[in-house]
Protein: Probable phosphoketolase
Amino acid sequence: MQRVPLASHQLALMDKYWRASNYLSVGQIYLHNNPLLTRPLALDDVKRILLGHWGTTPGQNFIYVHLNRIIKQYDLSMIFISGPGHGGPAVVSQTYLEGSYSEIYPEISQDAAGLQKLFKQFSFPGGIPSHASPECPGSIHEGGELGYSLSHAFGAVFDNPELIAACVIGDGEAETGPLATAWHSNKFLNPVSDGVVLPILHLNGYKIANPTILARIGGEELEQLLRGYGWQPIFVAGSDPKSMHEAMALALDQAVHEIKDIKAKAAQQGAFERPRWPMIVLKSPKGWTGPKTVDGVPIEGTFHSHQVPISSPAAHPEHLPLLEEWLRSYRPEELFDENGRLLEALAELAPKGNRRMGANPHANGGLLLKPLAMPDFKEFACDVPNHGVMGIGDTHVLGPFLRDVVALNPDNFRVFGPDETISNGLVALFDTTQRQWMGANDSNDEHLGPRGRVMEMLSEHQCQGWLEGYLLTGRHGLFNCYEAFIHIIDSMFNQHAKWLKVAGQLPWRPKIASLNYLLASHVWRQDHNGFSHQDPGFIDHVVNKKSSIARVYLPPDANCLLSVMDHCLRSRHYVNVVIAGKHAAPQWLDKEAAAEHCAAGIGIWPWASNLDQAQSADVVMACCGDVPTLETLAAVSILREALPTLKIQVVNVVDLMKLQAEYEHPHGLSDHAFDALFTTDKPVIFAFHAYPSLIHKLTYQRTNHSNIHVHGYHEEGTITTAFDMTVLNKIDRFHLVMDAIDRLPQTGEKGRALKQALTDKLTEHRLYINEFGEDMPEIREWRWSCDNAEQ
Amino acid sequence: MQRVPLASHQLALMDKYWRASNYLSVGQIYLHNNPLLTRPLALDDVKRILLGHWGTTPGQNFIYVHLNRIIKQYDLSMIFISGPGHGGPAVVSQTYLEGSYSEIYPEISQDAAGLQKLFKQFSFPGGIPSHASPECPGSIHEGGELGYSLSHAFGAVFDNPELIAACVIGDGEAETGPLATAWHSNKFLNPVSDGVVLPILHLNGYKIANPTILARIGGEELEQLLRGYGWQPIFVAGSDPKSMHEAMALALDQAVHEIKDIKAKAAQQGAFERPRWPMIVLKSPKGWTGPKTVDGVPIEGTFHSHQVPISSPAAHPEHLPLLEEWLRSYRPEELFDENGRLLEALAELAPKGNRRMGANPHANGGLLLKPLAMPDFKEFACDVPNHGVMGIGDTHVLGPFLRDVVALNPDNFRVFGPDETISNGLVALFDTTQRQWMGANDSNDEHLGPRGRVMEMLSEHQCQGWLEGYLLTGRHGLFNCYEAFIHIIDSMFNQHAKWLKVAGQLPWRPKIASLNYLLASHVWRQDHNGFSHQDPGFIDHVVNKKSSIARVYLPPDANCLLSVMDHCLRSRHYVNVVIAGKHAAPQWLDKEAAAEHCAAGIGIWPWASNLDQAQSADVVMACCGDVPTLETLAAVSILREALPTLKIQVVNVVDLMKLQAEYEHPHGLSDHAFDALFTTDKPVIFAFHAYPSLIHKLTYQRTNHSNIHVHGYHEEGTITTAFDMTVLNKIDRFHLVMDAIDRLPQTGEKGRALKQALTDKLTEHRLYINEFGEDMPEIREWRWSCDNAEQ
Structure:
């Protein structure tokens, strides 16, 4: 196809549309009243407090207007991702002009009254922030925290072969680590079965008060960098609107044609070669079309245009005419009719219906969400003929279940992880799928292919960002990760949880699938890693977020893991954190018991306890997590053998949030139910997977709280055996028993003797492990053998 | 200078040295006994449990041997940073061979007995992990979590003009975001006053089970990428040892000459142009020199060589001869004498004394640490003629103090931040220094220069990594950041805190300067940001780490901030988190009172309380953080006016860890001291800066815990005024008073009336803010005016 410059009258119309959007953007920052400047600007027309960000806005408006043109011309399905910080005025102006804003918010109507409200709400208390927040139609990316736009864009187009995600990347944002590695996502994109990401690197030269790196390395280095990342950059640079419109239109035509060529060629050939996708580099002045100077300070093209270029006319009366001049420079009277509606000739430039980027359903994923086709998890359960039978590793049991979820949902579910999927015990996935990989291949590679459902890149940021984009556009997924290193995405989790909270309050945004974490390779197994790989604190971080969003599960064995994961994959609009082991470990519950236990989330294990219904316990031995459950049951068996008259109640916690008060978390137990499990006055020895203080934080209001004694991770550990890790942190069976004895004076002489014996045992353990480097046979070979005869 | 290939006999010796180090590396993974293979390998000689990582090791050994050669030849001061995961066997072998290991650990002697211990401790319970952990001489970078090697390398060489940090970067690690952006650090390096980073990108092709991106994009794209990042790559590729030795020696000669040329030219010209520094790309097989195949599976050059290539001979007897063959392929009898000491001719290849990379004092920064020259913080204090006088913004008072710290320590102290230094109120720094910047300049830039002490890149990872490298090599610094976004480096904080814990237990590693965070732009001021910028949870994350490391300060005003920062900058081996405001806010304490209050860390404010020494309080109004202090004092003044007979004790907390039990944190108050502040039975209304549960977590064991009612951040907020943020989260003065009344039935009718009045006030507030977008005048203009007449 031939590249023909657009007719100048069309470019002139586009320039008017751009002026209209810039006018609305300045209006949002400044105007309280007189939205169409139908009378001279008065002090009273200006907001009392001036907030917001101008710098990035005109460039993003420029891009949006040009994208509208190619959407119409080529009938594209496109979404807009606003990566630079504070592009809110642009996306709000654009979705207002195209009409999608007023459809969702009818009170922000397409007339003078609506305009006035549009202006007022911006950066106004209780109004809308200066980012592309969930309230903004067409957005899947807020961008308050920078660096994730390109990852979100890729996540959005995976398995959406008709979709193009136009992703504006700020040159500030481009300095972040997550963005710097996200360019490499093109090695994972299938040109046949996936859609397309069109990055538009927006070089406006400055961050808040600094130049940006990419704007200052020169065109040659920048081109090398982008080509080195595997892209084909098309450069558009300048400040004269007319020539910039021409150049941008040509660049986008070129990009569309290259995209179509790549897609066509790939469809013919299959998708065996990684293409060099086009991208745009747009270099335009920061604060473009804004005031050149204010009070003698240069504004346009400098970092001084970052926020509000003309400060308060109330404090500086000479600023009022400057502001009026700036606003009138867009000639609103040529753009809007007397009622404040965009002129029909201009409105015609926007795409129609769902082609409008503010109305594309891909940017409101809940609209498109299909439930997963789910296999029956019980068919994957392991046999548990007796409590404590040795398993193969809990995540290894989960693997075949996830394999079948993948098989049943070939275009709707992906598994993400930083090259730990096999290490985390999920190798069964590769029975049915591969790792998605468009890079070069080598004969020694395994499980790589151009249509894999497993996404592995050694970047937790990338895994998280891709998954978020995939979920936000209405699909399902799972992130599997080492427990310690999931902290790498703490801040991305924050932003996603915040997005979910706000989106959940918007009736026009239906719920999306939950973000599911499977944290295997956890703190208690450090056989060949060490202290650097130990941190169970992600759940502390998660529970700080809204209780309507945060869910934490610690299944004690494989069948419980299956049940929990089945629940999580069916759930909506949560963040589910599931912590599970991958090493061979004892199994406690058969599939029916597991389903029942997980549905309750917490419960007494009567077979492990030694009291009848009618009896009351002397002590509660509670546990949460696979290793704590093992150590607790081993402690219980020591206690039951040595002190048979002691009445022990064993409580296992799967759903951590059951512990919190019912008015603090929807899963929280009533005080009555809690007391039935933990008593109101008996000692509770609680073995917990993570930092002990989390249990105190969740239970501090409970009746018996002062008797809850939590054992957990204390930042003690090195490279050592699984059991020794528990000893170093005093969560092993021996320390649990010794603690129980300390809390139970009635155990008397027998208790004291037992404690001494266990102290000796710990010494023996230390000597043995120092000598042989493995645990004593009695530890390795211990099996539960004392079910309650009553049960 | 001419590049002359090394004499072949020298290369032959280097090859032997390499073989020796590879032999020791395999020995660490496998051998329990028979360390010199003086007799045939028996099953008993092999460790029972085989752990560790071979894949990256031979390549790192190769690099180290070649670096030793250039260190000697050019008399370089160089440190070695082992970026790829699990390079432990290499750095341990190398430091053992050069003698630095045995100097620190004399029991690991340079003989057969020492070798046996060296082998046994590796990946053995309680031994050393498979990374370059703190226990390893010459290391400043553990690399358990990947991605920070290059940032650490740059941090190490800032202000160390004679130092070269040789930084091995794994091709897996290179996929992480932090590493991907760290390449751009060359824009911040001054070739005159800073040292040099020599990156060695090690392409061994595979991560755990996947190919790496950079190994599969082809040489042309890779060269473009690295040149685009601003480097001059020198490629060395192959697998034949002889030709690889020749190529690597030539490449390193070339790199040294280019470095010397750049440094010489820069010294002549000043440092106005950013040079293109050399770097090495080493492409060698993963698991180089290891077994080609095992059980028919290819090993060398594939991901199967990642961990232990030959699995247990105990379980697979046919593996024993394979292992012996592999070990003997290095011909240990040609390398070590009969006592197990490296032959003299080989030992000669290592540098001497502190030129050995395991002994370079820069890698043990405490050895070089000089105390900061400190100005008297009291000279920067603001006048506080009466309690509650309006200040200019607390960090704005801190700015001149930090400015003088910079001026007094021109080569020993830097301030890091992601372009927020001015935004965070520290503009005074630019009175005396600039932002370090070697990029191109523009006439509109401000405060940029080639020798600035302020390091700004829009990457929190980069700021943190640079600062860590700077501190670990014995200097001082401060990271200023928005509070919400410091979560971006949660996981880097973890790793640094873990490093400090372990290093603190090693007598040969003297303490280093603390890592100081200044978190301004905090959760309570969202005037022009919004929900995405709100997260006060970093301190929750920090207090999970060892109490010997973690310190958290929330100064209530500017003079307290000065006192706290003075303390932090003088402290050693901690992580200090300081949270402070930047907006104009009331000031409470003059410089003497502030110093006294901060030294205590917590205390009653008698002037704000209304009880005599002899009286006991009816209620404690406690506060921690600047905004909570303001709201608490406003609440106290409402209570004192409306209910003058109520006896109120006001407690302010600066040092958060004072709240924890004394046996849990060295700063913790005794129960007696705590009870004196918080009573044993009276209601405590506690206004806290962050998530309320943190206070419960710290105080759950205190006598009066059940009466402590905490107000804090509840994930409620949007873009709004400072006061409205407190209302949305119910930590404002009105909610505090209403809560107090609820806890004080004795306030009776008067209390109920006050509560009703405040409910009405909150309605009025909501109406006012919706109308005008700012707080009611009575809020804006409120000033404390009711000092206790008794004081």
Q: What stands out?
A: The first helix of chain B runs from residue 8 to 30. Chain B touches chain A through 125 residues (CB under 8 Å). The mean pLDDT of chain B is 95. DSSP finds 24 helices and 22 strands in chain B.
